[in-house]
């Protein structure tokens, strides 16, 4: 696996936001085209071949990323042990290489970063802290949890683009959490580490130049599951709950027989076989998949913070996000959900290439800025 690769983000301009109200607690919309995306972009990547069988509606830029990822000819993750799987190329390696190959200009970074190791349940976990270069604070505070199925994100570089975008576009301190991974650390280690990091962020907010009263949690995929669990644990432990949570294509259940799992069983970069592999690596027994920490749809969801859920069309986890949005709404939680068509799992951090990622990042940033007011 390539080390220390970072994907940087294109400056974003005004985007039109199209929202349709579905009921009193839920707003949902589907982004069907990219005509609203920053018109100042001067490049457009073209895929080399026809759309794949598993994704006939895939957008050209998204397909170009997937083609590049497949060009590395890595062995399927589900055929490897965890250590070897972590050496595979990531979608962000593909984006980085496409940026280089197409001479795409990398924007100036608007944040400073620093590392911090903290104690977590008898071990150490690493945090990467992003601080805006402009402004004096106190800034809002976001605790961010990366994806990787609880197993394969061996460092924070693969998700640097997402954390950096949140810090730059929201004008917030972002604490990105390198929770311990499976199978070396079984369930519920990642969940417990996630909460320890949240508690640390609250206790150290002032020294970070952050406002502890303006804290949110954001997570992608497995990290979306962790972010939601942090909100639940904060409620149950009677400490400050986040003012908002953003769950990006989150894992919310162990059921792999949903319609999106059937439609996109062979999709890239995430497929059904990989999800089975992730669960086998993280859980001691598959029965644990019914635990409400994994199957959030079984959890008590009352009194959770307002929630933004982002889903991708071509993603086995698409229905996880939709089902969870409905469960939250039924529990009285205000939910905004937005689906982006033509893109796959992991698209959110690809804003330098994929227009839908640009739009999703701006939408999320606007949701967070409104919550912090």
Short characterization:
The chain has helices at 60-71, 82-85, 91-101, 160-170, 189-203, 222-236, 259-263, 272-282, 318-330, 355-372; strands at 20-21, 26-31, 111-120, 123-132, 139-145, 173-178, 210-220, 244-248, 307-314, 335-344.
Fold and architecture overview:
With 373 residues, this protein is α/β, with parallel strands linked by helices. 31% of the residues lie in helices and 20% in strands. The chain contains ten helices and ten strands. A ten-stranded mixed beta sheet has the order 1-2-10-9-8-7-5-6-4-3, with helices on both faces. A hairpin with a 4-residue loop joins strand 1 and strand 2. The longest helix is centred in the C-terminal third of the chain and has 18 residues, at 355-372. It is globular, with a radius of gyration of 19 Å. The model is unreliable at 1-24 and 33-42 (pLDDT under 50). InterPro entries: AB_hydrolase_3, AB_hydrolase_fold, GDXG_lipolytic_enzyme. Residues 1-21 form the signal peptide. Pfam families: Abhydrolase_3. It comes from Pedobacter jamesrossensis.
């Amino acid at each position: 696996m390539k080390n220390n690769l970072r994907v940087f983000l294109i400056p974003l301009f005004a985007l039109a936001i199209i929202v349709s109200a579905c009921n009193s607690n839920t707003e949902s919309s589907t982004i069907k085209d990219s005509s609203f995306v920053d018109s100042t972009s001067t490049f457009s990547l073209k895929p080399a071949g026809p759309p794949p069988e598993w994704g006939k509606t895939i957008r050209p830029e998204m397909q170009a990323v997937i083609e590049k990822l497949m060009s590395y000819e890595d062995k399927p993750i589900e055929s490897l042990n965890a250590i070897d799987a972590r050496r595979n190329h990531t979608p962000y390696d593909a984006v980085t290489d496409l940026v280089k190959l197409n001479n795409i200009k990398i924007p100036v970074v608007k944040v400073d970063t620093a590392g911090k190791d903290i104690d977590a349940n008898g071990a150490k976990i690493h945090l990467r802290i992003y601080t805006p270069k402009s402004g004096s604070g106190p800034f809002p505070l976001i605790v961010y949890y990366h994806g990787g199925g609880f197993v394969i994100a061996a460092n924070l570089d693969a998700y640097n683009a997402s954390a950096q975008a949140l810090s730059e576009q929201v004008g917030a301190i972002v604490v990105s959490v390198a929770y311990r991974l499976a199978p070396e650390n079984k369930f519920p280690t990642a969940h417990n580490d996630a909460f320890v990091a949240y508690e640390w962020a609250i206790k150290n907010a002032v020294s970070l130049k952050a406002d502890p009263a303006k804290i949110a949690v954001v997570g992608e995929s497995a990290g979306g599951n962790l972010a939601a669990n942090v909100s639940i644990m904060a409620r149950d432990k009677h400490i400050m709950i986040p003012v908002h949570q953003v769950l990006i294509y989150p894992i919310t259940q162990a059921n792999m027989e949903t319609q999106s799992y059937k439609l996109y069983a062979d999709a890239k970069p995430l497929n059904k076989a990989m999800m089975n592999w992730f669960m086998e690596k993280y859980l001691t027994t598959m029965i644990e998949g019914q635990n409400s920490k994994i199957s959030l749809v079984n959890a008590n969801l009352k009194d959770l913070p307002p929630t933004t859920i982002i889903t991708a069309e071509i993603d086995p986890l698409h229905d996880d996000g939709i089902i969870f949005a409905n469960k939250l709404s039924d529990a009285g939680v205000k939910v905004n959900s937005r689906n982006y068509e033509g893109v796959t799992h992991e698209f959110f951090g690809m804003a330098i290439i994929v227009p839908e990622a640009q739009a999703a990042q701006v939408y999320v940033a606007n949701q967070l800025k409104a919550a912090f007011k």
